[in-house]
Amino acid sequence: MRLQPPALARSSFDTAAAERASEDLIPRLRADAGTRVLVIRGDRAEITGDRLRWRTPDEAAAVAGTAEWGFLGRAGDGSARLVAASVPAAAGDDAVDDDGWASLRMAGGDLVDEDAGAFVTAVALGRWFADFRFCPRCGAPAPLRSAGWSRSCTGCGREQFPRTDPAVIVAVRDVRNERILLGQNASWAAHNRFSTFAGFVEAGESLETAIRREVAEEAGVVVDDLEYRGSQGWPYPRSLMLGFHAVAADAPAARPDGEEIVAVRWFTRDEIVSSLAGTGPVSLPGTASIAHRLIADWCGEHA
């Protein structure tokens, strides 16, 4: 069965990487009234319905205040797209503000394809702008270069680029493919939320090794029959989430680790379908997450 692309991987947004080499690209595009700019505060942007609010350069400068600017690429109509990113978020990640600002985590899955791709790229760049202002080797300031896609140290000359950390996320099913195993993170208990199992790939690990280790640590089961199902960027803080399905060889052994995961539970398709619709026994991940796509994919035509 073919997996629908994860919500934040649907975009055909053109990043126009060849243009980044132009040293005057950002000031030139800021002077062009046809350029459109996405203002980011932390992981939040202005959203109306299923579209981002793209501002003119002058409007963006007035709204963004002190911000760093980067080149996102070209929209389908050929217009240049920039991001103006400032550090503080307006509110918590999982909220929609009264004035129309919403987080990527909350609203990214409901946007049109092109805007979803632009949003995740903008947040990823913005977080890198904020977190890597200085050289990791000598500590000297490292101003932006390549239209926001690299930094060059003013001390030792070292060049650095936006980081992406691989992480695996896996939907575990039983041998008969009748149930799916989900876990509850300690921070989700008050919301009765369950999700798939995930974790960062450690130094020297393959993806397969990371999956088996994470599921064994968090849920106590041994998995096999790993099947890659898609990926998407997830800038929390800077991950590439690689999604898989897997089969638990020893379903009765499932148990939480008691620290990060406080509960694990096997769910039937009926329970998952109703939960995806908002009427079931538990809360499931939002539509922007690859976890949501993996769970819905397991349900197939029933979802």
TrEMBL record:
Keyword Magnesium: yes
The protein's enzyme class: hydrolase
InterPro entries the UniProt entry points to: NAD-cap_RNA_hydrolase_NudC, NudC-like_C, NUDIX_hydrolase-like_dom_sf, NUDIX_hydrolase_CS, NUDIX_hydrolase_dom, Znr_NADH_PPase
Cited CDD domains: NUDIX_NADH_pyrophosphatase_Nudt13
Any one Gene Ontology molecular-function term assigned to this protein's record: NADH pyrophosphatase activity
Domain Nudix hydrolase: 162-289
Cofactor: Mg(2+); Zn(2+)
Catalytic activity, EC: 3.6.1.22
GO cellular component, one term: cytosol
Catalytic activity of the protein: a 5'-end NAD(+)-phospho-ribonucleoside in mRNA + H2O = a 5'-end phospho-adenosine-phospho-ribonucleoside in mRNA + beta-nicotinamide D-ribonucleotide + 2 H(+)
GO BP, sorted A to Z: NAD+ catabolic process; NADP+ catabolic process
UniProt superkingdom: Bacteria
Keywords: Hydrolase, Magnesium, Metal-binding, NAD
PANTHER family per the UniProt record, alphabetical: NAD-CAPPED RNA HYDROLASE NUDT12 (PTHR42904:SF6), NUDIX HYDROLASE, NUDC SUBFAMILY (PTHR42904)
Family that this chain belongs to: Belongs to the Nudix hydrolase family. NudC subfamily.
Name this polypeptide is given: NAD(+) diphosphatase
Species whose genome carries this gene: Microbacterium oleivorans
Lineage of origin: Bacteria, Bacillati, Actinomycetota, Actinomycetes, Micrococcales
